[in-house]
Design brief:
Family: Belongs to the 2-oxoacid dehydrogenase family.
Helix content: 25-40%
Organism: Yoonia ponticola
Shape: elongated
Number of helices: 12
Distance between the termini: 69 Å
Strand content: 25-35%
Pfam families: 2-oxoacid_dh, Biotin_lipoyl, E3_binding
CATH superfamily of the largest domain: Chloramphenicol acetyltransferase-like domain
GO biological process, one term: L-lysine catabolic process to acetyl-CoA via saccharopine
Structural class: alpha+beta
Number of domains: 3
Pathway: Amino-acid degradation; L-lysine degradation via saccharopine pathway; glutaryl-CoA from L-lysine: step 6/6
Number of strands: 19
Length: 395
């Protein structure tokens, strides 16, 4: 009896995927729910498990092939045929020797990581991805840490460089989608950016004062993102057009806030969404951000985790950025850019004092948000952060 393995439902607005990696080959035995292959969509990576136990008899869609929803991926033979390939593999003793090493690792490393490890003769790289999977960033970290220890290591890259000074690598579907959406955003929206700066003294003082009690009670660290999320929600209530979107000739105002928190991952930028963030406490926001951040790093974000955002916060400060102009995440009409906190001399009450300052940038769609509304929004964020008590008083 033969069972078909087909492309699962990929989620709202996603109609096709690319076959990224096959973890099994024809003739291999498979167990129920054992991972057969990995599909790469515009937004996330989707794992395809085996629906039955048996033998993988045929792979229909090869790696790199684009497939639609419900397309045929492979065929699995069930029943008595399942043990047959195992008997065949026992004949060549030498070929069977590496099997225990392969079996000891039940997850497949990222294709980009495997390629990089092969090029640099690396093995035993510790993985930080899902289920211990080795990601490209893990290999890069291993290379950077091992370079000083081996004097002969640079020879191989030199030889490779002489053979070819360029390398052409197909963009992942996620990277293609990022490029397409960002360019569409620039081409569609009348995007403009306004700037301000915020004195972080009070937020930093409040955080230092209560961080230990906060951690003890809620089991999560008190970070800056919850303050910025709360400040943005406060400002969005006063300037609702920043939380709206254009749909044809209509403006759709949202009476809720689904806060997108941009996060960098080894495969590209993703924006997980905190649903109904306006109903969350500081602790709830910090827990949700921690959970989404962990999912992003491990490649476990679902499409539902990244849909429905009404406003986005992007923190370039974690990478050392002092100032930038963030690009809108369509169809949203606003995105706040956070930056590095840096001590600067400021004139306070006629005296020059050193204060921890951060530049803020609000990029907005000028088709729906006027300059007055954008500036007002940013001023309200600044006021809330420089006097966090305003958040408690809803002022």
């Amino acid at each position: 009896m033969s069972t078909e393995v087909r492309v699962p439902t990929l989620g709202e607005s996603v109609s096709e995927a690319t076959v990224a990696t096959w973890f099994k080959q024809p003739g291999d035995t498979v167990a129920v729910d054992e991972m057969l292959c990995e599909l790469e969509t515009d937004k996330v990576t989707v794992e395809v498990p085996s629906p039955v136990a048996g033998t993988l008899s045929e792979i229909v869609a090869a790696e790199g092939e684009t497939v639609g929803v419900d397309a045929l991926l492979a065929q699995i033979s069930e029943g008595d045929a399942a043990p047959a390939p195992a008997a065949k593999k026992e004949e060549p003793k030498a070929a069977a020797a590496p099997a225990p090493a392969a079996a000891s690792k039940d997850v497949e490393d990222a294709p980009s990581a495997k390629k990089l490890m092969a090029e640099n003769n690396l093995s035993d790289v510790e993985g930080t991805g899902k289920d211990g999977r080795v990601m490209k960033g893990d290999v890069l970290n291993a290379l950077s840490s091992s370079t000083p220890a081996t004097s002969s290591a640079p020879r191989a890259p030199v030889a490779a460089d002489q053979a070819s000074r360029e390398e052409r690598v197909k963009m992942t579907r996620l990277r293609q989608t990022i490029a397409k959406r960002l360019k569409e955003s620039q081409n569609t929206a009348a995007m403009l950016t306004t700037y301000n700066e915020v004195d972080m003294t009070e937020v930093m003082s409040l955080r230092n004062e209560y961080k230990d009690l906060f951690l003890k009670k809620h089991g999560v660290k008190l970070g800056f993102m919850s303050f910025f999320t709360k400040a943005c929600i406060h400002a969005l209530n006063e300037v609702p057009e920043v939380n709206a979107e254009i749909d044809g000739t209509d403006v759709v105002y949202k009476n809720y806030v689904n806060m997108g928190i941009a996060a960098g991952t080894p495969t590209g930028l993703v924006v997980p969404v905190l649903k109904d963030a306006d109903q969350m406490s500081f602790a709830g926001i910090e827990k949700a951000i921690g959970e989404m951040g962990g999912k992003a790093r491990d490649g476990k974000l679902s499409m539902a985790d990244m849909q429905g955002g009404t406003f986005t916060i992007s923190n370039g400060g974690v990478y050392g950025s002092l100032m930038s102009s963030p690009i809108l995440n369509p169809p949203q009409s606003g995105i706040l850019g956070m930056h590095k906190i840096q001590d600067r001399p400021m004139a306070i009450n006629g005296e020059v004092v050193i204060r921890p300052m951060m530049y803020l940038a609000l990029s907005y769609d000028h088709r729906i948000v006027d300059g007055k509304g954008a500036v007002t929004f940013l001023v309200r964020v600044k006021e809330a952060l420089e006097d966090p008590r305003r958040l408690l008083m809803d002022l």
